Every structure is written in C-alpha cells, then in structure tokens.
Amino acid sequence: MSISNGNIPFSWSLSRHKCLSECQLKYACSYYISQNGWNKRSPIIAQKSYRLKRLQSLPMVFGSSVHEVINRAIEENLSDFIVDANEMTERIRGNLNKAYQDSKYKLGTWMDAPNQCTMLQEFYYDGDLPLDKISDYKNRIEPTVKHIIGSQTYRDLSDHGKVELVTAEKFRAMEVDGINVWIVIDLCYRDLETGKFTIVGLKTSRSTANDYYQYYQMCLYAWFIQQAYVLDSLEDIELRLEFLSDGTSKTFTPKEIDLDNVYHLFRTSVESMYTLLDDVENNKPKEIKEFTKTDNGNCCAVCNFRQICQTE
Questions:
Q1: Which of 36, 61, 180, 286 is deepest in the core (most CB within 10 A)?
Q2: DSSP letter at 291?
C-alpha cells in the first residue's frame, strides 16, 4: 500500500526520533499514514491512524494536566506568581475525571471526531481502567502540587522583579542544515541581573539514573536558546529537570560536547529517516510494507497503533 505524506515538508524533532527508534511501523502511522486523517474523504486507513494517534494514556493525561495548570498559573499570575494549591489540585483532578468520563461515555463522539474529546488508551483497548491505576494517580495529585510549590523554579518565579519569563511562542523551530527542527520548551526564564537563562524540564515521571532522552532533550533546548539569543558562552544557560513526583531536581550547565552530541544524534537520525523515503526532496515515504514492526513487546504493549499492527 502506498502512503501519502499530505504534502508536508520533512522536519525533525526529538519525539520523532524516539518514535522511529521504537518501531518503524509506529513511525509510519504517526508521521505519514495519519496525515489528513481528520478529513472524512481521506482513505479509511488514514482516518483510523489519525484516530489512534490521538489516544492518550493515563500517564500522558496526568502529565499534560500538570503542565496545563502550571502554564495557566504563570499566565494568570505573571506579575505576582503566587498559586493556590487547592485550585491547582482541583484542576488536575477535574482533567483526569473528564478524561475518564469522555472515555467511558463518549466513544461514539470520539470515533466520529477524535479531536473533540479524550479517549484513554487503556479504555479503548482494555475496556476500563484498573482500580489500582486510578488510585495511584489520584494519590499522586497532592504530592505533585506540593512539589511544584516547593521547587526551585517556583521560588525563582516568585522572586518578584528578578526574572523575566521567556514566552514559549518565540520558540517553535530552528533550522539546522536546511531542516526545521521543532522544539517545545516547558519553561524558560532569564535572570534580569545576570542575564542567565534557566531552561526547565517539568517531569511527572520519576527520576531515572540514565535517561538519554531527557539528556538530549535538555541539551537541544540549550542549543536552541544559544542560537536564538546568539549567546557567546554556554555558561549563560542553566538546565534544570524538576521531578514533580518526588520533589527532586537535577541541574547542570551544558558544554560544547553536549551540543555536539545533539547534532550528531540529529544527523544520524535524519539519515535513518531518509532511508524510509522514496523521494527525500518531497518527503515521499516508501510503501507501508517497507516499514518493519518492532519485536520489543514492551513497546507494543503501550502502542496506540496495535489495532493497525495486527492487520498488517
């Protein structure tokens, strides 16, 4: 079966790289087959891929809810950053409840218009959420909010007049070797006295000793800020990972070798993606049979596209 690219130019992101490293078929579904799947005139396989692409796991919904309440608190209290812990807790709980209700009662709506409501992956494939998983995430809400308020990032933002928030809208993409590299920075601010930038990665997952993805993600952010502000020294950038599940954090200053590592990853990743294209210039992918399935059962167990994979 041939695949359309939806006339979308080739671009790169770290999440795209991660997707390809997990499974070529998942990559095809995510970045090619699902293109224009929102359109009822598109092929059935495109519509199905688009729908499955929009499935969200409970950890994803929890993480996006935490990011949402933090961003909302910053927007509403930019000049006086003091948040209401109870309000933040209730908003996260409300988002989780809505995702549950949508998944349980709005399957028909989601099948017809996947962008109009949330469908939890666990509901779609397993029919419900395990009670222990529901209890686990309910119990995570209050400690997460507590750790947000107890974080160094919160203290920095609460130090009135000392820092300037760098708005996310300024940072969407940079061009590297003629390719758009997409970036979404969780939070970035600059010390008005020293001019130093702090780039924050907000993590609702637990800290792990060797997470290469987080390392490359933060170094990519640093590369981006260095280019955007034409910084002479990387000493002007501080990278901070805030682990909101346990209140720990990791802080480091990037070095040139770190940016070299990111560029090397980018080049090797792009070359791997190019091998799956019939026409690199027009971003035209090979036929679907050329995209192999992973044999990693752990990836398959949490993949949105299991339904398609079983029919290929």
A1: 61
A2: S
DSSP line for 260-280: HHHHHHHHHHHHHHHTTEEET
pLDDT tens digits for 113-163? 999 999 999 999 999 999 999 999 999 999 999 999 999 998 898 877 788
| Both tokens assigned to 155 | 């203290």
Is 216 in the same domain as 175? yes
- Read off the pLDDT of residues 4-40 as tens digits, 9 standing for 90 and up: 555 789 999 999 999 999 999 999 999 999 999 999 8
Q: Read off the tokens for 284.
A: 């035209």
Q: Say yes or no: 166 and 144 in one domain.
A: no
Residue 83, amino acid: V
The residues near 72 (Cβ < 8 Å, ≥ 6 apart) are 91
| CATH, residue 199 | 3.90.320.10
Contact of 250 with 240, CB cutoff 8 Å? yes
Residues 6+ away with beta carbon under 8 Å from 256: 234
User: How many structural domains are present in the chain?
Assistant: 2
The domain boundary, picked from 254, 269, 293, lies at 254
What percentage of the chain exceeds 90 in pLDDT? Answer: 80
Residue pair 291/12 in contact by the 8 Å Cβ criterion: no
Q: Count the neighbouring beta carbons within 10 Å of the beta carbon of residue 200.
A: 25
Cα 217 to Cα 160: distance, rounded to the nearest angstrom = 29
Cα–Cα distance for residue pair 54/186, rounded to 1 Å: 21
Copy the structure tokens of residue 221: 């952010």
